[in-house]
Amino acid sequence: MTETSSSPQSFEIISSLRFDPGLPDAACRHASSYPDPHKSPYYLLAYHQDRLIAAAAHFQWNRALTWLQQDLQSFEEFLDSSIADRSKAWRLRIVVNSQGKARVEANATASIDLMSLFIPSLHTNPDPPIWRVYVDTESTIPSGFTTHKTTARDDYAAARLRAGINSPTDLAEVLVVNPNDEVMEGSITTPYFLRDHMWITPPLSSGGNAGITRRYALSQGFCLEHTISRDELVDGELCWLSNGVRGFIRGQIITK
After folding, report:
1. Cross-referenced InterPro entries, in alphabetical order (predicted)?
2. Cα 114–187–245 angle (5° rounding)?
3. Contact 225, 200 (CB under 8 A)
4. Does residue 66 carry a pLDDT above 80?
5. What pLDDT, in 10s, does the model give residues 85-96?
6. Secondary structure E strands in the chain
7. CATH 3.20.10.10 matches 121-253
């Protein structure tokens, strides 16, 4: 996969986030451990904008960069136009091309325990759903397309198929590994593993995505960055997973 802007129509940069009418109240109640803006119904809004800016800068998409560097209120107003019913929760997919043209794909999404949007140390559900977490049988080569989220996701789709995950509604994830057998990330989540009484997440040097919930977890001291190899994963061990639509999810490693 070539990381040049010579074929700008071949991919777009993306970020997926949650709109939830209940988030502002919950965020204000936990303001000390949730980043600004607290009153926005868009989950970790500023982090999503920053993520898209970083991707546009990496791919040297100057027109996209100019559009993305608008003030946060204007960015939120752009997203508002995609919300058909503000009383419901929505999954939004922000898509930006090299020319700075942006669109939002909005789909209704299920209600969740709002506490799952915060770092796990704040969770109150004693019995959360547990996702099955597999390990990819093949390796993925790190690139700008793994560090930044784009529509070029063939490697992730292939990893999910190899793990037998056939639907986005499956409560299952697959960990992507690099040629050095280091865990990079999950196909749609950031993973966290308990080691020596501390939660760790793979460093960006392993090749994974600079996810927004990853940034949130690190900023709150929930986890540290540490390389973890495929061989270190223990069958049956519990882990955490996170992304910008579902928040933090409990998972269980399956290696056999």
Report:
1. Aminotrans_IV, Aminotransferase-like, BCAT-like_C, BCAT-like_N
2. 20
3. yes
4. yes
5. 999 999 999 999
6. 13-19, 90-96, 102-108, 130-139, 172-177, 183-186, 190-195, 198-201, 223-225, 238-243, 247-253
7. yes
Which ranges of the chain would DSSP assign to H, the alpha helix?
Answer: 23-29, 45-58, 62-68, 72-80, 144-147, 154-162, 212-219
Residue 89 and residue 117 in contact, taking contact as beta carbons nearer than 8 Å: no
CA–CA distance, 82 with 192 (Å, rounded to integer): 32
Residue whose pair of structure tokens reads 């929930």 in the numeric block: 222
Q: What pairs with residue 15 in β-bridges?
A: 94
Direct distance between the N- and C-terminal alpha carbons of the chain, in angstroms, rounded to an integer:
31
Q: Among all chains, which residue has been given the structure tokens 């501390």?
A: 198
Strand-pair category, 223-225 with 198-201: parallel
Residue 254 CB partners (closer than 8 Å, separation 6+)? 132, 133, 134, 135, 235, 236
What is the distance between the alpha carbons of residues 233 and 237, in angstroms, rounded to a whole number?
8
Q: At what angle do helices 72-80 and 45-58 cross, to 10 degrees?
A: 100
Report pTM: 0.94
- CATH 3.20.10.10 residue ranges of the chain are 121-253
Quick check: helix, strand or coil at residue 253?
Answer: strand
Write out the residue limits of the CATH 3.30.470.10 domain(s) in the chain: 8-114
Question: What are the CA-CA distances from residue 56 to residues 68, 102, 129, 133, 208 (Å)?
Answer: 8, 12, 36, 31, 17
Question: Distances from the Cα of 222 to the Cαs of 32, 83, 207, 228, 234, in angstroms?
Answer: 14, 32, 21, 17, 21
- What CA–CA distance (Å, rounded) separates 208 from 148? 8
Q: According to the CATH classification, is domain 8-114 in 3.30.470.10?
A: yes
Q: What average pLDDT does this structure show over 99-117?
A: 96
